[in-house]
Amino acid sequence: MPGKDELIAAIDIGTTKVSTLIGRLKKNNVVEIKGYGLSKSRGIKKGLVIDINEVTKSILDSVELAEKSSNLFIDNAYIGVTGKHIAFENNYNELTIASPNKIVRKIDVDRLISLTNRINLPSQYEVIHTIIKQFVADGEKGIEDPIGLATERLGVELLIIFGSSSIMRNIINCVKSANLEIEDIIIEALASSEAVLSNEEKDSGVILLDIGGGTTDVAVYKNKKMVFTYCLPVGGDLITNDISIGLNIPFAKAEEIKKRFANVDYNFPDLLNKASISEMNINTNKTTLSIQLYNIVSSRIKEMMQIIKDKIDEYGILNSIPCGLVITGGSSQTKGILKMSSAVFNMPSRIGICIDVEGPSEVVNNPIFSTGVGILKYAFQVDNFEDIDNINNKSRNNLSFGERFRMFVNKILKGEK
Ligand SMILES: Nc1ncnc2c1ncn2[C@@H]1O[C@H](COP(=O)(O)OP(=O)(O)OP(=O)(O)O)[C@@H](O)[C@H]1O
Ligand SMILES: [Mg+2]
Q: How far is the CA of 77 from the centre of ligand 2 (A)?
């Protein structure tokens, strides 16, 4: 874990852009962005590498810009990963406390966690994070730190997040080809949550949606911990594609029209009447275009939200989310999106902008940077982010996640996997 004042770099390799942020942790636990780079993403689709050379070039462009803007040199970075290959499992285990007075010692906790942190994964998967959801002492749930408590039996519930080794290997190879060492990998749903959710929201229950270009990352928090994650391999690019086909115009023009005029609130003020549509060179009148855009964009976003709602509902946690939805990522800028999300989920919604971060306003106020900022926050372990790494780091008997992960990276680089 980097210390205060140490500079670190985060690279978010998205479907539409690659962003590199260089930041440091200030004394008040605020992350300060010292430099950033933004390049157009090439060779990535729905979170997956489809052209290693193109991705490497996009990373190099983004890193170079971040270096220029900060006058700093980057040789290692934390990176984000997403895609529908990411999945999770809950694991629960208990043990009997052996000490004569039944007081839980650190050794008991370490033993219980290493016992529970084992799932039978097919060989093509690798664990990315293990999150401690809660401890249970003699059936009493919701214990955060059991050391020192007296109990006959101690249980722990873990959320183990894993992903496809080969898909991660491709991302790792792109970063390596850009001459960068990887410090750690973090799933993007977790990163964006770290950036935009408040502690109160995580404690009470909240749903995070990061709607990007090619994916929508979902995380659900309850009792301070992530309890669910999902990646829908669909984002704003599909909406642009729908507009391009529906209006019979090129993708770039559809993208411009979407950003300027699309509005999924049916009662929107008539934006198109105020704008000059002649400059768009489209063969239709304003009213028709308004209705067509509304129909195309709202039906796609509604469909995406309904799929996500059903996924969360299948897991049985939709009724315990008092803080509702927090929406971030580039597509959160779609006009009227909050009204639509509140209607689909029947919950309050807000836009998620990074909290406890300082730096250029074009970064800190722009939802496309939520993942990058969250990767930095994760790296600095702001808010005492609790990953199994923290616990295992205290116990030299086990390899920490960071150590295991670096072994995984090294194996890949040596071609052993
Ligand atoms: N004003 C706007 N209105 C609607 N959509 C917008 C607006 N600005 C940006 N977008 C959309 O945001 C998307 C890009 O968001 P973002 O940068 O978060 O994606 P990404 O991180 O590159 O992709 P992903 O996370 O899916 O891999 C694009 O589809 C773009 O059209
Ligand atoms: Mg993204």
A: 17
